Amino acid sequence: LKYNGQVFIVSLKGNANEYGAIDSNQKVAHEFEHGRQVLDRELSYHNYNPPDWKPWALDRTDEAKAFAAGFDATPVAPDQSGFLNGMRQAINAGGIQGGVDYLGRSNTKYRYLPAGPINVTHRSPAIYEVPK
Amino acid sequence: MKFLSNVTALLIVLLSSMAAQDPPKPLPLGFADFETVRAAKTKGELQVSVPSIVIRISSKDRKRESFAISSREGYVSVPLRPGSYCFDAYDQKGLQLELDSEQARCFDLVAHDRLVVGVVLAAN
Question: Among candidates A54, A107, A115, A132, which has minimal Cα distance to B123?
C-alpha cells in the first residue's frame, strides 16, 4: 500500500521475493488490511522528507495482521515459499503475536521493524490523517 | 605561428577530453528510517514513541560510525552507504541506553533501498 499525497495505491507488482511469492488474492487481502490499519490509526504515512510519503508507525504487528488477512483470503499452499508456510504455522500456533515473533526471526527486512504495536499518536501536517 | 597552432591543438585536445568525460555519478545511498520506541512490559501491549534518542550507527567492521538524533515524534532518517551496520542508543548526555533484547541490532542496507529500523528501548 502506498500513498502519494493524494490517493492510496494498492500495488500488486511488488517484489515477489519480498512477499515470498504471495499469490494475488493473498496480496490484495494483505494490502487491504494495511488500508484498514490506516483507517484505525494503527499505521499512516509521512512526508518528513518531501516529496515522498513513507510508512509511519509501521511495525511487525501491522505486517503479521496483514499476512493473517492474506491467509484468511486464500490458505497457504504447501508449494508456496518456506517463509509463507512458516508464517502460517507461526500464526496458527501463536496468533498474531506468533507471527510478530516469526517475522523478527525471519531473513527478511520485516525483522528490522519494531515489534509494536505502535499506533499513530502524533498529529502533524507531515503525517496523513484520515479526514473525519 | 607554429606556437599558435600548437596551442590550438592543445586546446582542442583539452576540450575534446573534457567533452568525453562521463557525467558525475550519483552517490549510491540507502536510507535507514529509525523509529525510536520503548518496549511494553508485556508482549503485545502498545510500544510508545520516545523522542530525542541519540543513535550511534557503526559499520560492522567498526571502522566508521555516524550519529543521529530522533525527532520529538521518535523518527529520524539517515542516509548511509550500502553495507552492514549495527546500532546502539544513548541519551543526550552520552549515557548508553539498554535496548530490548528481542530486537535486531544490525541491518543490511543496499543502495536506493529504504529500511524502517526499530530502535526499541528496554521496558521501564
Answer: A115
Distance of CA B113 to the CA centre of its chain: 11
Element (H, E) at A69: helix A60-73
> Residue A35's pLDDT is what?
94
Which among B123, B119, B92 has a CA at the least distance from the CA of B35? Answer: B119
* Confidence (pTM): 0.86
**Could you tell me which chain A residue has the CA closest to the CA of B39?**
A116
C-alpha span between A99 and A88 (Å, rounded): 8
Return d(Cα B10, Cα B118) in angstroms, integer. Answer: 58
| DSSP code for B80 | E
Each residue of A23-34: pLDDT tens digit?
889 999 999 999
- DSSP lists the bridge partners of residue B86 as B58, B106
| DSSP bridge partners of B75 | B35
- What is the least distance, in Å, from the CA of A23 to any CA of chain B? 24
How close A118 comes to chain B (CA, Å)?
A: 5
Alpha helical stretches, state H, chain A: 16-19, 24-39, 60-73, 82-105
Per-residue pLDDT tens for B95-116?
A: 999 999 989 999 999 999 999 9
Return the bridge partners of B109, or none: B83
| Cβ–Cβ < 8 Å for A100, A61 | yes
* Cβ within 8 Å, pair B116-A112: yes
Which residues touch B8 (CB under 8 Å, ≥6 apart)?
Answer: none
